[in-house]
Amino acid sequence: MVLGMDEIINAICLHIAARKDVKPTDVTVELLWDEETGYSAEVWVHERSQYLVESNIIEAILRYLHSEHGIRAYREDVVLELDEEITAHVRV
């Protein structure tokens, strides 16, 4: 299963909304990739920003897979890749 960038962003929005007790529409996400730091995301909630590292992104994806698709996956089942956009490859 492959999740595109939009689904990864949705996963992060839902995850952060649940953690911060806000609506998913109150969350803005920008996915990033850098040679030194790898995959990350900048997240804004009510004009406050925070950065998520790759493990936080994978945690959001795992939660999304379970809540939206009924799939129980583990961290080692999710691999982030950068082609023309960031995608998540999930082994199910």
Topology readout:
Layout: E1 2-3, H1 5-20, E2 27-34, E3 38-45, E4 48-53, H2 54-69, E5 78-82, E6 86-90
Antiparallel strand pairs: 1-6, 2-3, 3-4, 5-6
Helix pairs in contact: 1-2
What does this structure look like?
Helices cover 35% and strands 37% of the residues. The chain is built from two helices and six strands, in the order βαβββαββ. It has helices spanning 5-20, 54-69; strands at residues 2-3, 27-34, 38-45, 48-53, 78-82, 86-90. The strands form two sheets. Strands 1-6-5 form a three-stranded antiparallel beta sheet. Strands 2-3-4 form a three-stranded antiparallel beta sheet. The model has no long low-confidence stretch (mean pLDDT 96). It comes from Paenibacillus enshidis. This is YxcD family protein. InterPro entries: Uncharacterised_YxcD (IPR020516).
Cα gyration radius (Å): 12 Å
> Distance between termini?
7 Å
What oligomeric state is this? Answer: single chain
How helical, in percent, are the residues?
25-40%
Taken from the alpha-carbon principal axes, the silhouette is: globular
What's the count of strands? 6
How are helices and strands ordered from N to C?
A: EHEEEHEE
Approximately how much beta-strand content do the residues carry?
35-45%
Q: Name the structural class.
A: alpha+beta
Main sheet specs: 3 strands, antiparallel
Biggest sheet, strands in spatial order?
1-6-5
